[in-house]
């Protein structure tokens, strides 16, 4: 009798081994950060969160991977509650609801796959992914898990309100496990159109545009996290265009390599942002996270400035950084079609955004009082960021250190020249629009006298319509809540029965 699934696993190799090592390293550094920042209450849920990520990397069947998803969900819920604010509680509740919806879609996909194949094991799915009937459900579950546009709202609500030492931990696992799931299971290209790759590329570009409008430092970084995950899903989505194992391996290797590099430099940027915020005093007391009210920190904290430059250079794809290495593989995986063009435009916006990030924190005139702890305390607090920065620099200089990257030829003249083009575009846009980008509370807008933009008018009208429909839905949900637990349980059971009927008839 063929086993349905197996709770055992073997140590992975190649890029899967790189992901496992990354999760172990990110977990260790995150725990060190919590200890250094004396945030001891978060250590237990933090360890559980790390365990969920490691379990996902080791999982060999759909059930184990789903269990890892849920471990991450509930541990993140308790991590978000560490802030003990009303906004954090609301963000944690939204996080929990959205992640449970994603898990329900995952479960339906698993049932459809089992109904057709009789197994839940993921071995041998490297090229084919799940059965075609399960693909739409799994693709939607992954888009929610990875905060793809328009399902990004849960992330930008949650990460900016988490306790400062917790955000790097949250950024390292949930969305990345979604990418790992996509690399193993999603091959969604109906009619030969790489819709999943398109979704990733559009997410990368739209999230960058939204990031440029942000003036709160962790909101800016959160939108860039969404954008960079879009790069990964764009690469992984190209695997659905073929059943050739070698070509599928190239696409998934590129996506997972960018997962490794991004997790490191994004954690570094969140750590730098947290240390910078603690160096300023907000009007009401506490850390200052508003970019227009920061500035002047380069002279006071030069080491923090260097760490920020390393992270910003990596996410912008500057040559000889880890971000350049993974984006070089991404270019080959995605190709020169429309998704590739969208990613190039996103790269220009990323470079522009991090020029703004560095300028407003470190080099602009200081606009808030700067308070510095003792030299010893500053050095201790920078140890986790320093460890991540070292890993980022080493991978940038020698990408073959990452398991699965057996050879490297990305330092050729044409490759370096192609990487400098979007960076040059970022620099030119910064020179032209710097005043608007750094203006407090005023996003980039049309030149004076240009008249209303029809696209913006249509977008505003559509947003108002969505808001009205959302208010109606909220009213319906409140009415449902007033029905009481018996009616809610009855509705939940009816939903499960309906899903089971649909699965049985498909």
UniProtKB/TrEMBL annotation:
Q: Which residues cross the membrane?
A: 17-35, 42-60, 66-82, 94-114, 134-155, 162-183, 195-213, 225-243, 302-321, 341-364, 376-395, 415-433, 488-505
Q: What InterPro entries does the annotation carry?
A: CPA3_Na-H_Antiporter_D, ND/Mrp_TM
Please report the organism this UniProt entry assigns to the protein. Alkalispirochaeta americana
Q: Which UniProt keywords apply?
A: Cell membrane, Membrane, Transmembrane, Transmembrane helix
Q: Where is the NADH:quinone oxidoreductase/Mrp antiporter transmembrane domain?
A: 59-350
GO cellular component annotations of the record: plasma membrane
Q: Mind telling me what this protein is named?
A: Multicomponent Na+:H+ antiporter subunit D
**Membrane-topology annotation of the record:** Multi-pass membrane protein
Q: Which PANTHER family match?
A: NA(+)_H(+) ANTIPORTER SUBUNIT D1, NADH DEHYDROGENASE
């Amino acid at each position: 009798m063929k086993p349905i699934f197996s709770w055992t696993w073997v140590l992975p190799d190649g890029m899967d081994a790189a992901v496992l090592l990354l999760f172990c390293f990110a977990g260790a550094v995150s725990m060190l950060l919590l200890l250094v920042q004396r945030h001891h209450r978060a250590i237990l849920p933090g360890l559980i969160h790390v365990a969920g990520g490691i379990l996902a990397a080791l999982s060999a069947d759909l059930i184990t991977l789903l269990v890892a998803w849920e471990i991450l969900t509930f541990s993140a819920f308790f991590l978000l509650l560490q802030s003990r604010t009303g906004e954090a509680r609301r963000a944690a509740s939204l996080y929990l609801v959205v992640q449970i919806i994603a898990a329900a879609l995952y479960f339906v996909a698993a049932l459809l796959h089992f109904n057709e194949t009789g197994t839940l094991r993921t071995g041998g799915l490297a090229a084919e992914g799940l059965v075609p009937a399960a693909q739409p459900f799994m693709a939607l579950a992954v888009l929610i898990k990875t905060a793809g546009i328009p399902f990004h709202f849960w992330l930008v609500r949650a990460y900016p309100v988490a306790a400062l030492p917790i955000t790097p931990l949250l950024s390292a696992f949930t969305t990345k496990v979604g990418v790992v799931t996509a690399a193993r299971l999603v091959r969604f290209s109906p009619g030969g159109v790489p819709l999943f790759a398109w979704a990733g590329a559009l997410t990368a570009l739209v999230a960058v545009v939204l990031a440029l409008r942000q003036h709160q430092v962790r909101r800016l970084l959160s939108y860039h996290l969404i954008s960079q995950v879009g790069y990964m899903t764009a690469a992984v989505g190209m695997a659905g265009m073929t059943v050739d194992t070698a070509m599928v391996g190239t696409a998934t290797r590129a996506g997972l390599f960018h997962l490794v590099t991004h997790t490191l430099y994004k954690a570094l940027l969140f750590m730098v942002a947290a240390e910078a915020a603690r160096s300023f005093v907000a009007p009401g007391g506490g850390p200052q996270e508003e970019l227009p009210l920061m500035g002047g920190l380069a002279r006071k904290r030069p080491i923090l400035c260097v760490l920020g430059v390393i992270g910003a250079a990596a996410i912008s794809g500057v040559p000889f950084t880890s971000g350049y290495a993974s984006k070089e593989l991404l270019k080959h995986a995605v190709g020169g079609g429309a998704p590739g063009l969208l990613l190039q435009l996103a790269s220009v916006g990323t470079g522009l955004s991090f020029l703004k990030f560095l300028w407003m924190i470190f080099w602009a005139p200081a606009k808030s009082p700067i308070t510095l702890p003792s030299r010893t305390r500053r050095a201790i607090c920078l140890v986790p960021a320093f460890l991540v920065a070292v890993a980022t620099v080493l991978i940038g200089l020698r990408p073959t250190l990452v398991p699965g990257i057996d050879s490297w030829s990305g330092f050729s003249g044409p490759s370096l020249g192609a990487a400098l083009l979007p960076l040059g575009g970022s620099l030119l846009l910064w020179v032209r629009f710097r005043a608007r980008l750094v203006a407090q509370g005023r996003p980039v807008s049309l030149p004076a006298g240009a008249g209303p933009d029809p696209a913006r008018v249509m977008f505003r009208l559509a947003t108002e319509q969505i808001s009205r429909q959302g208010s109606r839905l909220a009213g319906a949900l409140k009415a449902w809540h007033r029905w009481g637990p018996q009616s809610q349980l009855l509705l939940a059971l009816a939903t499960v029965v309906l899903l089971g009927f649909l699965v049985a008839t498909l």
